[in-house]
């Protein structure tokens, strides 16, 4: 359990370091890629929510909720960023 916690904390620091170094031109393609990964996360979370009882179901349900929020938010941000490049769009 401690090893898993250590890997999780390491992943947080690595993710923050990588995100701060990404140039703004790459944000839209990376957002699309992360949306695809979050879609895979939703499938895994659905499996986890249906396998066990009690704690597994609760954690799986929370994972489904958070991954869904991430996917929807990512698509909204990507659409807004792409909308900035559309020619002739009036707001």
Question: What does this protein structure show overall?
Answer:
This protein has three helices and no strands. It has about 90 residues and is an all-alpha fold. Helix 2 (about 25-50) packs antiparallel against helix 3 (about 55-85). It is flat. The model has no long low-confidence stretch (mean pLDDT about 80).
Please describe the structure with a list of short key phrases separated by commas or semicolons:
91 residues; mainly alpha; 3 helices; 0% strand
What global shape is seen? flat
Question: Over all CA atoms, what is the radius of gyration?
Answer: 17 Å
Average residue pLDDT? 81
Biggest sheet record: none
Distance between the termini: 51 Å
How much of the sequence lies in strands comes to under 5%
Q: Structural class, please?
A: mainly alpha
State the helicity in percent bands: over 70%
Q: What is the element string, with H for helices and E for strands?
A: HHH
Total helical segments: 3
Q: Give the low-pLDDT segments.
A: none
How many distinct beta strands?
Answer: 0
